[in-house]
Amino acid sequence: MGNRFQAQDVAKGARDRFAEGAQFIGGRLRAGTSERTHTVVDPATGDPVWTYAPAGEQDVDAAVAAAREALPGWAGATPGERSDALHRLAGVLAEQAGDLAAAESLQCGKPIRLTTEFDVPGTVDNTAFFAGAARHLEGKAAGEYSGDHTSYVRREPVGVVGSIAPWNYPLQMAAWKILPAIAAGNTIVLKPAEATPLTSLMFAQAAAEAGIPDGVVNIVNGLGVQAGERLVGHRDVAMTSFTGSTAVGKRVAEIATATVKRLHLELGGKAPFVVFDDADLEAAVHGAVAGALINTGQDCTAATRAYVQRPLYDAFVAGVADLMATVRLGDPFDPSTDLGPLISRTQRDRVAGFVDRARSYATVVTGGKAPQRDGAYYLPTLVTGAAQDSEIVQSELFGPVLVVLPFDSDDEGIALANDTPYGLAASAWSRDVYRAGRATREIKAGCVWVNDHIPIISEMPHGGYKASGFGKDMSAYSFEEYTQVKHVMYDNTAVARKDWHRTIFGDR
Ligand code: NAD
What we know:
This protein is α/β, with parallel strands linked by helices. The chain is built from 17 helices and 22 strands.
């Protein structure tokens, strides 16, 4: 019961903190003008947490105008000034770590251990990384390439960035979108997912507290079709950066393309987990269960399809089933909880639908149902015997479900790993460096782990191949998205009649 009191306190704190509204525009909070309401729900209980007025089109326009006004000043700040501001932001976020973790656990149903040890420290580290990286933006070349001119490359901000984020890691997604954009001198309007507005607002308030000027970071909390499409199509937005499902990403791409915007898409995943017959079985079993269940499986890189070479297959299936049975479902605010609820009952029912349909063509070894408790919980689930082209192997479920299938040759294991439309992440498990090395080269995904699955670090890029999208989050590679390069060329001859003018004037 103590844990529930904590959840109620956090909910009351959020209602008080955001009493003025869910839109953070030009440095202050205000209510949305959509004439609708949206209720944030605690996924662990189904209880309402906070009802807010979502952004209307007017609010999106106001946020873009604020970002546009702030742009010259922020783009004109020195890299050192932007870096200092981001260092201060890292400090403010670290001071508020407890509040951020609690709000993230409340709105997402994430276990407090996950938000305290992963979401929040990851966000602080990302902020510190981009504080440093802000001083290392560079053009790649400068020199006299024609002989008569000096050329160099300037790296410039793109302008006002419009970003859209999903609900599975709201705080980290806010950080991944906002930090590289503003480190490079852009200003931004971020639209978080409707269900999870709290920590993006807290992040923006922390930016203000750190002295980042008003209008540099704006948050519009609104519905996808209304606020999201307005933001993507806005003529004063120079770039769209979207993280979410492949289906919505296609719609976003259509609108962004029609208005000729730079586009960065981080979309769905269906990560394979390939276990060769010389792998450390215990490590692979632990890696598969942790990789499948992190964030209740609502992770775009979660291990979803384990392919296990025949000699290890039976022991792997038995090991995963045994280990899944030890995972403790519980209240997100209880530090002993391993697995929280899904984001909503709708999402839980969607996942259950996939598993229920699979019963006709596959075996549900363990789980496959909701436990007897309130909230959007679903038991850790292991499925075997599915055909490679079946729905449960090919589609993104976004729940605590692992499918395990056998393979014979290494060629077959790698081919199966590549056999979905997605290509976000994958892992290969082997003690043989040549086998693992081949998998890292031949699996088509933006990240391939060897003998692990899930860890991310600020210095390394995150992004997809194939239908998982294009462009990179985190790392210095993200600056390729959030900057444009300009060639500047100076004449060095100081003569009126240049050599190349012969093409126009001949010998005259
Ligand atoms: P979603 O696509 O339903 O929604 C994402 C965002 O898009 C939300 O903010 C939503 O309001 C907005 N949106 C919805 N319709 C829109 C429209 N017509 N125009 C503009 N915006 C619109 O995704 P979700 O359910 O919130 O998140 C889960 C998905 O996100 C999964 O597919 C997951 O794989 C993906 N994801 C990918 C990454 C990655 O890095 N590749 C990271 C996290 C999540």
